[in-house]
Amino acid sequence: MTAPTAVGVVDGAITVVGFGALSGGVALGVSLLFRWYAGRRAPEGVAVLVGLAAIALLLNTTAALASAIVEPGDLFHPTTALFTVGTFAAGAIAADAGNRVGDRIAVTLFGGTGGRDLSDVTQLVRTGGRVIDVELPEHVEDIDGYDPVPAEEKAAIAGTRMRFPRRLTVAELHDRIVTRLREDHGIGRVDLELTAEGDVEYLAVGTRAAGIGPTLGPGSVAVAIRADPAFAASPGDTVQVWTTGGDPDRVVTAELRGAVEDVATLAVDAFEADRLDPLERYRLVTLPREPSADREFASLLRAADETMAAVRIAPGSAVAGIAVGALDVTVVAIRPPDGRVEPLPPRHRVLGADESVYVVGRPDVIRRFEAAAGRAEAEATS
Questions:
Q1: Which residue in 68, 156, 195, 354 has the most C-beta neighbors within 10 A?
Q2: Which DSSP helix (H) or strand (E) runs through 270?
């Protein structure tokens, strides 16, 4: 590079500004891409380094640098050094500015949650440390419809601090807390609600009954008797229980749940359980019919994570006037104020005030639906 002239100084300044714009533009693109992919701001050092790398790559191919290589003496010329230092200084400043501007644009476009999924439920938990500290509330509620957890177990859970690795979404953190409670404390049901920061807003627990108890419908009990079921009988078959005396008599109609040698376990209605004597020996006759649909539905529901509830729609509530298909819960029946039950309503059926809605869903979903059904629309939108 030769001694500077007026035209050369102007050209050099324009070149420095151009390189700065290039560095700032590259850093802006890196910031946009990083925010979209990772959901957080790109480190300043990374953006500046990438911007300067673009300058170095282009500067290496320019005629000015080629001239310096051909004429080694010009490499140490003050003008050359000033041009190089000025270019990289301007590039560093422009890259930092591009990183900041790009991050603001990305937050406006992507909402700060990343372009892969913009829903609040998958938002990354905001934390500044290397781990996520979650503290459970001091008061643990009971889940309606489930047997309560012993008081000493809830006392052991209350106020517990849990640690999890960073970079978890709210949904992933929710699942890990629920899994930890089930595995470490033997909790059967967990109703948990988290904020965007990973704080526990609500916690309720319930027990999961063992054995065949959860599979028994309401009003049914399990009874073990001495009897030999038919060879082809299997659990779930409907059987008649007969006495084995000289004049056989039918005792009850039940459902076979299991058989070991000469002991059979039956599911019978609670008011008929007293008819069976554990010291007597009975004879079982398998009937060629399936169990009733209501009993099968009740047994499956008791064993599932979902539960059933009846919710009254308050006048002016947030869900009054909403179609059944727009709800997060499954509606199995609606009872209008006149008392006529509508089973399995169509999706376009609109909910009205003072109607009772029978819904199936997870405890947390039903709890939110109950809150919306009992809250005025003005309060819900405020």
A1: 68
A2: none
Neighbours of 147 (CB within 10 A): 14
Give the pLDDT confidence score for residue 350 in this predicted structure.
92
d(CA 271, CA 141): 33
Question: What is the tens place of the pLDDT at every residue in 117-143?
Answer: 333 334 555 545 567 888 999 999 988
Hey, what are 379's tokens? 């309060």
Percent of the chain clearing pLDDT 70 (strictly above): 73
> DSSP 3-state assignment of 127?
coil
Distances (CA, A) of 140 to 28, 155, 181, 350: 47, 8, 12, 36
pLDDT attached to residue 355: 92
Is-contact 302 217, C-beta < 8 A?
A: yes
Give dist(CA 309, CA 191) in Å, integer: 15
DSSP 168-203: -BHHHHHHHHHHHHHHHH--SEEEEEE-TTS-EEEE
Q: By percentage, how much of the chain surpasses pLDDT 90?
A: 7
Q: Which residues pair with 203 in a beta bridge?
A: 192
Q: What is the largest CA-CA distance in the chain?
A: 128
Reading the block at residue 229, the tokens are 């079921």
Residues 6 or more apart whose CB falls under 8 angstroms from that of 227 comprise: 241, 262, 263, 264, 281, 282, 283, 284
Tell me the mean pLDDT in the region 19-31. Answer: 83
Q: What is the pTM of this model?
A: 0.45
Task: Return the number of other C-beta atoms located less than 10 Å from residue 121's C-beta.
Answer: 11
Whether residue 78 has pLDDT greater than 70: no
Q: What is the CA radius of gyration of the chain?
A: 36
Yes or no: say if 208 and 190 are a contact pair by the CB < 8 Å rule.
no
Question: Residues 231, 278: contact at Cβ < 8 Å?
Answer: no
Alpha-carbon span 322 to 306, nearest angstrom? 23
Angle between helices 6-38 and 44-59 (to 10 degrees): 140
Q: Which domains does the chain have, with CATH numbers?
A: 6-110 (no CATH), 121-206 (no CATH), 213-295 (2.40.30), 305-381 (3.30.70.1450)
Closest CA to 50 of 94, 105, 115, 101: 94
Cα separation, 80 vs 89, in Å, equals: 14
Element (H, E) at 115: none
Residue type, 367: R
